[in-house]
Each structure stands twice: as C-alpha cells, then as structure tokens.
Design a protein that fits this description.
mainly alpha, 73% helix
Length: 215
C-alpha cells in the first residue's frame, strides 16, 4: 500500500509543532522551527503536482530558504548574545502545554472536517493543519516568557498562514505568500532589535524584564 506524501507531511508537521510545545531549550525550538519550515515548503510540490511551474518552484523555494535557512540563522545570531538558553519560567507549564496542543489539534481537525471542499478551499485537511499550526503558534506566544521563544511562536503562527496560502489555487497563493514572507521578515528584524535591547538593558531575554519599564 502506498502512502500519500501529503498526509505524511501533515503528520510530520503536527508532530514537530506539538514537540515545540514541550521543550524548554531555545536552540531546539529554533531547529524545530527550521524543520517545520522545510516541511511546509515541500507542500507546493505535492499539492500542485499537475505541473512543476515556475510558480510552484518559486513558492516552494522561498518557503524553504526563508523559513528553513534565513530566519533560523537570524535567530541563531540573536541567541549568541543571550546568557539563558532555556525557558525557565514559562507562563504555561510544558506538561499543560502539550495537553493544550493536543486539544488544539483535535479541535482544529474537527473544524476542518466540517468545511466542505470548494474551488477556493480544495483540501479540508490542509485547512485543518493551517488552523492547528496557527493556534499552536499563538499559544507559544502567550505561554512563553522569553522574547526568542515568542519570536518563534510568531514564526509558527505565520507558518500556519503559509499552509493556508499554499492550499489555495496557484493563481492566488503566490501573491499571498510573498506578502506574508515580507511581513514575516520585517517582524523578525523588529523582534531581533527588541531582543537586543532587552538583553543590553537587563542582561536577560525574558520579556518579564519589561515590567521594570513601568517603574
């Protein structure tokens, strides 16, 4: 029996996303985000397999290069100046995080199964994956206290939007994804500046240090 490569990529993407909710190591988070970016970058080749057009090549290559290489390299550079490579005091514990992640996954695929396929939403499974990754990224932003972990949560959230974009017809998804990738790069650069300022002023990358600015 042959295995559908799209289903394999979906399962691997869900596993990587849930794994990111369980780890306290920032370096592991960055590597996991890079792997997730590469996996999602492969989707256009299988979804639009009817013809390997320039659109498919550009969309997939941009996804892999930007999400799997460029942004992780920027995050690794930000980590070099940090003194704490672990999330020591998250807002939500890691055990509870994985429980929330599983619930998010079940709810996401439950919602996706209720959406009928159409010309503009051809795959309910891809929509489910998009919702799952987006919500897990939002959860990472809220559940973690270090700026780097929150940046990675923002990256995961955008990956969910990317997943939705690549499931659209080829005539629509390229412009959507180019705009998303540009916004993502700008957001990462801005957060990199914020991380540098937090570390320089407070010798920490925890956003809890921002509470001192109120005083």
């Amino acid at each position: 029996m042959t295995t559908n490569p799209i289903n394999t990529l979906i399962v691997l993407s869900v596993i990587i996303t849930l794994f990111m909710l369980t780890t306290s190591r920032i370096l592991v988070l960055v590597r996991s985000a890079a792997i997730l970016g590469v996996l999602l970058g492969l989707f256009p080749f299988f979804i639009h397999h009817g013809a390997f057009s320039i659109h498919t090549i550009v969309l997939s290559s941009l996804g892999i290069i930007v999400k799997g290489v460029v942004i992780p390299m920027l995050l690794f550079r930000a980590i070099r100046s940090a003194t704490n490579f672990r999330e020591t005091r998250p807002h939500v514990g890691f055990s509870l995080s994985i429980v929330c992640g599983i619930l998010i996954t079940l709810i996401s695929f439950g919602i996706g199964s209720k959406i009928p396929p159409s010309l503009f939403l051809p795959s309910e499974t891809m929509i489910s994956l998009s919702i799952c990754i987006t919500m897990c990224g939002l959860f990472l932003i809220m559940a973690r206290s270090t700026a780097l972990a929150q940046v990675i949560g923002y990256l995961v959230l955008e990956n969910g939007i990317f997943t939705f974009g690549v499931s659209l017809p080829t005539t629509q998804s390229l412009l959507v994804e180019l705009g998303i990738l540009l916004d993502l790069l700008v957001g990462v650069f801005v957060m990199g500046i914020v991380i540098h300022q937090i570390h320089r002023e407070f010798d920490s990358i925890s956003t809890d240090a921002l509470e001192a600015l109120r005083e």
